[in-house]
Design a protein that fits this description.
With about 425 residues, the protein is an alpha+beta fold. The chain is built from 14 helices and 23 strands. About 50% of the residues are buried. The structure holds uridine-diphosphate-N-acetylglucosamine.
Length: about 425
């Protein structure tokens, strides 16, 4: 466990410019897609985060070769040793479930340990497994180990009960290897799902309906490795923008890739009073007055993403009026509230709903990051708080941010990582 902590001296106005890291939720499924074919793929602008290191560690165990050159990651999947995912990794890394679809297609079988519960909710993988069965795989669970086998996958009609991001991605990864057409309805439309689908197109797959809730995949085509430019992470971008908002700052973020992915988030920040100028490769944000109260109901894309909820809640704590939040994706995503209360936040939780009564100011305190975005929420709160905030339990933050402290320092914040 990481023993280090962040020390933030709050109330420093943010300003300046920052290049936003590559998207975590794009790069993880794209990494899984490299297992579909033999050969080398380079992912440019790849974030150097713990989740990527864990994914590549699993890939090395599977026989892949991994090499880094600054932010460019090359994986060579020529000598895969089979479809048995190392059990010691899969319990800790949820995204390793994304290897299942690709390995089923390439190796005809896959085994993996149960990807465990999670701090933000139960996160079962039933939609993934039911989808694999529809594609002709025999799926068994024995003593916490999933075994899926299919001599050949064949196209099918699959209707997802909820637009799960991971299940949509996993089924796309399996369906490109299935003979015939697969119609995937009720699927997720998040920009990161589109990123994966478009990358599969560039590998030679045939997919129609990208960006809609119904994709048709004509499988069985020969795929080839294709290099990939990782777009900027919209959730990391939201973190820096909210940091600027709570300090009445003015910042410019530089973005790689299609900037349309930012729209559902920027709408929320504008409702909270930010002046935003979205350009083709950058976002400029200026915040002059108080944060305005917000009604935020998270949901599948194009609704506002659940991943910004904790950070928006932190910013709403000192708004000019009461805010209401409804978390419609994960059942346990308010754990950070007990930490925010230590800083003076006034929040009442009732099931999926949170009522935020604003306070004049937050006060620096000693808090612990309960999960990845909860950690980012505490950083945002600390930047806007009076006095010093100490944030411990940084492991989860490092899964998703390459160096959130360094990034905020570049924007003028006083945030130091103290290594114990
Ligand atoms: C992905 C993102 C995560 C984001 C989430 C929702 C990655 C690596 N992670 O997670 O950052 O918060 O999408 O946008 O991309 N569900 C089931 N059964 C299933 C699958 C999902 O019941 O088989 C439920 C989940 O418990 C949850 C909801 O569906 O309540 C959405 O989950 P899902 O979209 O699958 O999230 P992830 O793909 O795990």
């Amino acid at each position: 466990m990481d023993q280090s902590y962040y020390l933030i001296q709050g109330k420093r106005r943010l300003s300046g410019e920052l290049m936003v890291q590559g998207s975590k939720n794009t790069v993880l499924p794209v990494l899984a897609s490299t297992l579909l074919v033999k050969g080398k793929t380079t992912l440019f602008h790849c974030p150097r985060i713990q989740d990527v290191f864990m994914m590549t560690a699993v890939m090395e165990q599977l026989g892949c070769k991994i090499s880094w050159k600054n932010h460019d990651l090359t994986v060579d999947t020529s000598f895969l040793k089979g479809g048995n995912l190392p059990l010691e990794y899969t319990g800790n890394l949820r995204a390793s479930v994304l290897f299942m679809g690709a390995l089923l297609g390439r190796e005809g079988y896959v085994t993996m340990g149960k990807p465990g519960g999670c701090k933000i909710g139960k996160r079962p993988i039933d939609f993934h497994l039911e989808g694999f069965s529809k594609l002709g795989a025999c799926v068994k669970e024995r003593e916490g180990i999933y075994e899926c086998e299919a001599k050949a996958l064949s196209g099918a009609e699959i209707l997802l009960p909820f637009p799960s991001v991971g299940a949509t991605e996993n089924l796309l990864l399996a369906a490109v290897s299935a003979q015939g057409s697969t119609v995937l309805s009720g699927c997720a439309r998040e920009p990161e799902v589109c990123d994966l689908a478009e990358h599969l197109l560039s590998m030679g797959a045939q997919i129609e309906g990208i960006g809609t809730d119904r994709m048709t995949i004509r499988g069985g085509r020969k795929l080839e490795p294709a290099d990939y430019q990782v777009p900027s992470d919209r959730i990391a971008a939201a973190t820096y923008l909210l940091g600027a908002m709570v300090t009445k700052g003015e910042i410019r973020l530089l973005l790689r890739g299609n900037n349309k992915r930012m729209e559902s988030i920027l709408k929320v920040l504008e409702q909270m009073g930010a002046l935003i100028d979205l350009k083709e490769h950058s976002i400029e944000l200026k915040m002059s007055g108080k944060i305005l109260p917000i009604y935020l109901a998270t949901g599948p894309h194009p609704k506002p993403p659940t991943d910004i909820q904790s950070m928006v809640l932190a910013a709403a704590l000192t708004a000019s009026g009461p805010s209401f939040i409804e978390e419609n994706v994960f059942e346990s995503r308010y754990q950070v509230v007990q930490e925010l209360k230590k800083m003076g936040g006034n929040v009442v939780i009732s099931g999926r709903k949170a009522s935020v009564s604003p306070v004049f100011t937050l006060y620096g305190s000693k808090v612990n990051a309960p999960d990845l975005r909860g950690g980012a929420s505490l950083v945002v709160a600390g930047l806007g708080a009076k006095g010093n905030t100490i944030i411990g339990s940084l492991d989860d933050l490092k899964r998703g941010y390459e160096d959130i402290g360094k990034d905020f320092r570049q924007l003028g914040a006083s945030i130091t990582e103290i290594i114990r």
